[in-house]
């Protein structure tokens, strides 16, 4: 993690005395350069902030928990779309690396950015991995951006199968932005930890050339042959929810569930469309986002 990013996370974690709304308003202005309107939220990011403060549906805590969500996925779409699980641990001391295969993935159930990938156990530095995981287990992700759904998750570690996509160090991530169970935007992320390639598409797989937010200049991601199935799975998982981003992988024609995200970018992602209308996509997604009833 870059020093600047580490400092920002540390700073947020040490500002717990600031009430949630004040903290969110402060970060929103600093990140997006316009004043947050919580009384009449209009943009996608404004509505994500409103949900942090006012949409406290208990099911969200289950759905962002990387272990507990598996039962939801199993019930909604079936076991065959779950990444094989090797173990779930309350502490790093419980992990027996000798019981894991040559390739595997370790990640915490309660946060973001704690994924550790092992592609060759003979050169894998398990002590460094344990140190990173111990630090992550002590962190409550809620305090990073006041994302309510993460507040009460039990911190654990899961070991899952490594998904091997030929030609990629890490598998391509297909992110479906869904509103009331319907996908409105698809984002692809390939080689996230090396030469990051990000693209945007419509649900009909037409490239969104009007979006330049972190988009690479490489050729468009090819449409998967089983894309219609992936779209159907994402929308099935997203049904009955005002908004969720459903992330899927596609390995040799077999879709696998990745995660469900309710606060993309913490609600501080600029979503630049173009220089003349930098907030156009933010507004476009905001129009699709029908806020639920306030329950807090």
- Sketch the major β-sheet: 5 strands, antiparallel
Record field, number of beta strands: 9
Helix percentage: 25-40%
Q: In whole angstroms, how far apart are the ends?
A: 35 Å
| Cα-atom radius of gyration | 19 Å
Spans of 5+ residues with little confidence (pLDDT < 50)?
Answer: none
What's the SSE pattern? HHHHHEEEHHEEEEHEEH
Number of helical segments with 4 or more residues:
9
What amount of the residues lies in strands?
15-25%
Furnish the topology, listing elements before pairings.
Elements lengths: L2 H11 L6 H13 L11 H11 L4 H6 L4 H8 L8 E5 L14 E5 L7 E3 L7 H12 L4 H4 L11 E5 L11 E7 L2 E9 L6 E5 L25 H12 L4 E9 L2 E8 L18 H9 L8
Antiparallel strand pairs: 1-4, 2-3, 2-4, 5-6, 5-8, 6-7, 8-9
3D structure, described in words:
- The protein is α+β, with helices and mostly antiparallel strands.
- It has nine helices and nine strands.
- A hairpin with a 2-residue loop joins strand 8 and strand 9 (254-261).
- The longest helix has 13 residues, at 20-32.
Characteristics of this structure?
alpha+beta; 296 residues; globular; four-stranded antiparallel β-sheet
Concise account of the structure shown:
This protein has 296 residues and is α+β, with helices and mostly antiparallel strands.
